[in-house]
Specification:
single chain, alpha+beta, 28 strands, about 25% helix
Length: about 750
């Protein structure tokens, strides 16, 4: 019986629950100095001077540096050359201008960690304030000293499509047209482990850097670029990582500065940011203003849809500036909309840069189209579930290409919706809702729906997305796997061992998985975009099968048999002669004279497209505006599930994160660009006490794009839950005339919506 598809307990957990993980800040580096960053207290200003003299006299201070000291290092150039304005690069340490509160503008190096904060306070910075640009619309129209990068000519970092080409007749013939501008608010990734780095330059001139990241190979490339050195002169090692959610990809200026300090001082250097620094300096997520317009017939059939996006990139365009491209790609979601179009503009503002955050552009697309569907349902008077039924794409097993160029691999979107509705008891919920409305209850019931499809495992590699794995069997019967993915909570150690065990017959507990060391594994795509199982796992399976091919030839030679006459007995992890099971040789023995090792590269024909449907149930107090999430019923179809326990864990985490955006989370700036949510006292997020036990319904539609039949699952919960929960809060108040509430649906926002609503007649 195959181990695949069974609920194997995570092999990672005993270590984390007993001795604990070893994170970057736990690394023991004798003689290491401690790096501290002095950060701008003003959102937009010219730097007149930075005086470090007083800090140099403070106890324990080894050195202090300003941007001028690092002038020989390259700028951090915007990504996606050719798409994003190249004039908007970021210096590692600000030299002439600061562009957001929290931007590094000086460095203090101390003997002990606790000496740095006091010394940093002694650095005197003289600013010449410039007008801050915080609002996206103001940024788009900015001129003069409201342009963050004068050489760029404007605050536009990138455009996707041309608003001038939008069809004037897109909604001709529509009986109903609804339009609204909505906000997909800025949020903070807020991983448990903040950013950190440790660096040592060896006697051979090579740099070893320990950085928490989801892909050591990508971090090596980015760090080498920031330092202006060859990648061969750099080794990146990934310790345990306490959460990333997309925000730890690559390398940040602070990482490069730590490495530079280690080289400049000739001793190891280390840095770990505080939570306040993390909320100020780590890239944020989402931050889109969307104008949605939807039109169709009064029976609930949608004929046209338009999405116009204004993306806040923050002060320096990073991956966040590119997010609208992914939002546009997935704009129509799982729906068959005859006419659809989308355009976007990314602008820079005097706020923290925006980057990837769990889902990265796809949750924004789903949030937009699902709000559009509910607005259309409200205007036509057709039940939201029925509107979705009428407009979902029919089932397909052959690739389907959308008007925006996405090639969906397989899907049955209607089945997912129906499964979610049945599991939730949708009709009973509507009856309960009707009763509460008729009785005028203070606590009203809301039912929110969302249907989604997302892209996972994308890749720009020629020949399609790919990943490598190396599998080696040892003479003692154990095995080692080297993988180009980088687990940080996903359970790769368990699942990769399951895949190899299923092929090789070696027990899971005798298989070791290694990752995150660029000297050991020079190539790899890391973990992001929900790619790991479908590409990294497939590579492990492929390498295991190819290893059996090598072992078959060796076994045939040892037993003087025809290779075709041998059968592999996984129960004994041995080859035997067909019809004579006693004539056998185990894999371990075949590894005694010569290493039994295979490296394989799996290439996929393209990304896969998981899909699903969520039903959220909320209760909203009409007197106080307080919304409480009571139920989430989720169908998340990610193809073949290899370990249901781990897949459910990914779904639970994603649903909670999505619900938190709908109800609580928001990064807020005042008009001067000062962050108002720079601590966990001001930036709330859900814990286990604020969410119900999620109800997960199983559905599997395999993909043909990899032998496992697997699609990605890591971001699905976040994509489906956010609009479902938001829709549920609004639905609770729909009979009172509420049509929309921007996220997060805080008590204040809900109360204000109620007070300004026009009761439904």
């Amino acid at each position: 019986m195959s181990i695949l598809g069974t609920r194997v307990i995570r092999s990672e957990d005993p270590r984390f629950l007993t001795t604990g993980g070893v994170y970057t800040d736990d690394m023991r580096l004798p003689g290491a100095c401690h790096v501290h960053f002095v950060r701008s207290a003003i959102a937009h200003a010219r730097i007149r001077s930075v005086d470090v003299s007083a800090a140099l006299e403070a106890p324990g201070v080894i050195a202090a540096f300003t941007g001028a000291d690092l002038a020989d290092l390259p700028m951090a150039a915007p990504p996606m050359a050719g798409l994003i304005n190249a004039q908007m690069g970021q210096p590692l340490i600000a030299t002439d201008v600061v562009r957001y509160v929290g931007e590094p503008l000086a460095v203090v190096v101390t003997e002990s960690h606790y000496q740095g904060e006091d010394a940093a306070d002694l650095i005197d910075v003289d600013y010449d304030a410039l007008p801050p640009v915080v609002d996206m619309a103001e940024a788009a129209a900015g001129t003069g000293d409201r342009v963050l990068f004068p050489a760029a000519g404007s605050n536009v970092a990138a455009t996707f499509g041309d608003a001038a080409t939008l069809a004037a007749d897109l909604f001709d013939g529509c009986e109903v047209v609804v339009s609204r501008t909505i906000v997909n608010q800025r949020v903070a990734p807020a991983p448990m482990e903040t950013r950190a780095a440790a660096a040592v330059w060896g006697a051979d001139g090579r740099l070893a850097a320990w950085i928490p990241n989801p892909g050591a190979q990508g971090t090596r490339a980015a760090l080498a670029g920031l330092l202006g050195i060859d990648q061969a002169a750099l080794r990146v090692i990934t310790p345990d990582v306490g959460g990333a959610f997309g925000a730890k990809f690559g390398a940040d200026p602070e990482h490069a500065v730590v490495c530079w300090v280690a080289r400049r001082l000739g001793r190891p250097a280390r840095w770990a940011e505080t939570r306040n620094e993390n909320l100020l300096g780590m890239t944020h997520g989402r931050a889109q203003r969307q104008t949605i317009t939807i039109g169709g017939s009064r029976d609930g059939k949608v004929a046209a849809y338009r999405l116009e996006i204004l993306q806040d990139s923050g002060a320096y365009p990073k991956f966040g500036a590119f997010l609208p491209a992914l939002t546009i790609l997935m704009a129509p979601g799982p729906y068959a909309i005859p006419r659809a179009e989308a355009v976007a503009t990314s602008v820079v503002t005097n706020t923290t840069p925006v980057g990837a955050y769990r889902g990265a552009g796809r949750p924004e697309a789903t949030a937009a189209v699902e709000r559009a569907m509910d607005l259309f349902a409200a205007e036509t008077g057709v039940d939201p579930a029925e509107v979705r039924r009428k407009n979902l794409l029919p089932p397909f097993t052959e690739p389907h290409t959308t008007a925006f160029g996405a090639v969906y691999d397989s899907g049955d979107y209607t089945a997912a919706l129906e499964l979610a509705l049945v599991a939730a008891g949708y009709e009973d919920l509507r009856r309960e809702q009707a009763k509460r409305r008729a009785d005028g209850d203070v606590i009203q019931l809301g039912i929110g729906l969302s249907c989604y499809v997302e892209i996972t495992g994308p890749g720009a590699e020629e020949g399609g997305p790919r990943e490598n794995a190396t599998v080696e069997v040892h003479p003692d019967g154990s095995a080692t796997i080297l993988t180009g993915t980088s687990p940080h909570g996903q359970g790769h150690e368990t699942v990769w061992a399951m895949l190899a065990s299923d092929e090789l017959g070696i027990p899971v507990d005798k298989i070791t998985v290694k990752w995150g060391d660029t000297d050991l594994i020079p190539e790899g795509g890391g973990t992001g975009g929900s790619r790991s199982l479908q590409q990294g796992g497939a590579a492990v399976q492929q390498a295991s099968r190819e290893l059996l091919g090598v072992a078959r030839q060796r076994a045939a030679g040892e037993m003087e048999a025809n290779p075709d006459d041998l059968v592999f007995d996984a129960g004994r992890s041995a080859f035997a002669v067909a019809g004579d099971p006693d004539a056998s040789v185990p894999l371990a023995r075949l590894a005694e004279r010569e290493r039994l090792v295979v490296r394989a590269v799996f290439s996929a024909p393209g990304p896969t497209f998981p899909f699903g449907a969520h039903v959220a149930v909320t209760e909203v107090d009409t007197e106080t505006g307080r919304a409480v999430l009571r139920r989430v019923v989720a169908v998340d179809d990610a193809g073949t599930v290899i370990n249901p326990l781990l897949a459910e864990g990914q779904r639970h985490g994603g649903i909670a994160q999505g619900a938190a955006q709908a109800l609580l989370e928001e990064v807020i700036y005042d008009a001067e660009g000062n962050p108002l949510t720079a601590t966990f006292a001001d930036y709330p997020f859900v814990t286990a006490t604020e969410v119900p036990s999620f109800e997960l319904a199983a559905m599997e539609t395999p993909t043909s794009y990899n032998p496992l039949g697997a699609k990605g699952i890591g971001e699905a919960g976040t994509i489906g839950s956010t609009p479902a929960v938001q829709n549920a809060v609004i639905d609770a108040l729909a009979h009172l005339g509420v049509r929309h509430i921007d996220m997060p649906a805080s008590p204040r926002r809900v109360w204000q919506a109620l007070r300004s609503a026009q009761p439904k007649t």
